[in-house]
What does this fold into?
Amino acid sequence: MWRIKIFDKDMNELTHMFVGADVRGLDYEKKINSPGSASFTTQILNSKATAANLAMFNRVKIYDGDTVRWFGYIASLDVDLNEVQVNCIGMLGFLKKRIYSSGYIPTSTVDAFVSAMLTSINSADDTGIALGTNSVTHAVNATEFSRQTGYDVLNRLAAIAGTAEFEVDDDGNLNFVETLGTDVSASVIFRYDVNAINRATIYEFQVEVDSDDLANHIIGVGTSPASSDTEDDATSQTAYGRIDKSVNFTETANATTLADATQGYLDQHKYETYSPKITPNIELIDVNSFEVGDTVGLYMNYGFINLDQDQRITRKKITVSDSGVVKADVNVTAVGVNKLPSTFVDAIIDLQARMRLYEGTL
It folds into this structure.
C-alpha cells in the first residue's frame, strides 16, 4: 500500500495519507546531481489537509509498504475550490536554501570539504541531512567558497573533481561519491528485439537531443594569480567546429584547481546531450529492481539500431494510480558515451511505429 507521511521541519510526524483514500495523482522523480520532485493531490475538505500539515518546508516521505521510496519537503501548493495539489522538492534541494558562510581553503580534499561544509550548515540550524558516503579525495587548493549555497558548493566540488556525483538519499544522508548506484546490468535488461517482441521489456521509447550547452573551447576565469585557463577538445572541434564558452570560477585563485574546474566543465559539455526515455513493461521488469545511478543492460535490435551495451539510469519517475498501479519512466545514458549515431533519431519513428503495431494501436 502506498502512503505519504508528513513531518514538521524537526521530523515530528504530523499525519499520514493513503493513496486512494486520501491522495490521488501521486508521482515522484529522482535525478543524478539534482533534487528531484514529487506531487500529489488531496481534497481540500480532507481532515488531514490542514494548514499545519501542509505548511511550507514540512518534510514528506513516500512509502511503498514499509519502504521509503522518496524524501523531500513541501515547496508549494496549488489550491482550488475542491482540491489541493502538493508540490514537493527532494531534500537535496534544501541545500539551495542554506548559505555556506565561510570557506576559504588553502589546501584540502573534496571529502574533507564536503564534511566541513555540511557541519557548518547544520550548526546554524539542523537541516536533518546527515553525512553519508563521502569518498572523493581529489585535492582542492586555494579556493573560496564563502557565501554560496550548499548545493552550489557541491556542484563546484563535482566540477573540480572531474567525476563526482551526489545525492541526499531516502534516509536523509548526503552521499558524495565518484559514481552513484550499482551495476545490475546482469539482471535488469531493457530489451526490444524485433525477432522476439513477446520478450520486450520496453513499452515505449523516445529520445531528446540538445546542443544548447555544447562547448569545446572553454575559458575558465579565476582570481589572480590564476586569472584564466583555456581547455580544448580536438575531437569535438573536428566534429562540430570550435564552439566557445567563458565560465566564471572567480573565487578560484590556484592554477591547478582552476585548470581542473575548466577541464571538468569541458568534459561535461563537449558533446551534444541526449536523453533517451524508456517506459519499461512493468509486467516483465520490476521497477524496484533499479535506481538512479544504477547500470542496467540495454538491448535493442531493429533496423540499423543494434545496441547491446550498458546504460546508466540518470532519471527515474514513478507514477502511482489511485488503485496503486505503478508506471515508470526512466532516462538512460550509455556508460562513458554521450554521442548518438547520426541516423538514430530518424529511426526512432520507425521503431515506435513497429511497437505500436505490435500493441495493436494502429
About this structure: The chain is about 20% helix and 45% strand. Residues 100 and 147 are 5 Å apart (CA to CA). Residues 337-362 have pLDDT under 50 and may be disordered.
